[in-house]
Amino acid sequence: MDLRIIDRNSFFSFYEKYVAAESEKARELKAKGKSGGDFYNNQNTRVGVHFATAVICAAKEGRLLYRDAYKLTGLYGTTFAKYAERLGFGVR
After folding, report:
1. Around 66, how many Cα atoms within 13 Å sit in the side-chain half-sphere?
2. How far apart are CA 60 and CA 91, in angstroms?
3. Are 64 and 55 in contact (CB under 8 A)?
4. pLDDT digit string, tens, across residues 19-56
5. How far apart are CA 41 and CA 87, in angstroms?
6. What are the angstrom distances between the C-alpha of 80 and each of 36, 42, 55, 60?
7. Is the whole-model pTM more than 0.70?
């Protein structure tokens, strides 16, 4: 609309349909009991897969204390272990 490729009425017609479709998706997810994203998948972005892999390998090989691995990743105890498992590593 800002570039004057489409007129105002066409834009708002599209936008209203889009918002209605997104609202419907949200209602369906809520009805199914799904509340949002996956914590462990979000860690791939927050921590980084390559960094996490290096930290986990170092901890498993004894080159890094688990205490330090926890601090570096911000994941502690069973949360760290479960994240490592999801990356394909069994911890301890």
Report:
1. 10
2. 7
3. yes
4. 888 888 877 777 777 666 788 889 999 999 999 999 99
5. 10
6. 21, 13, 11, 12
7. no
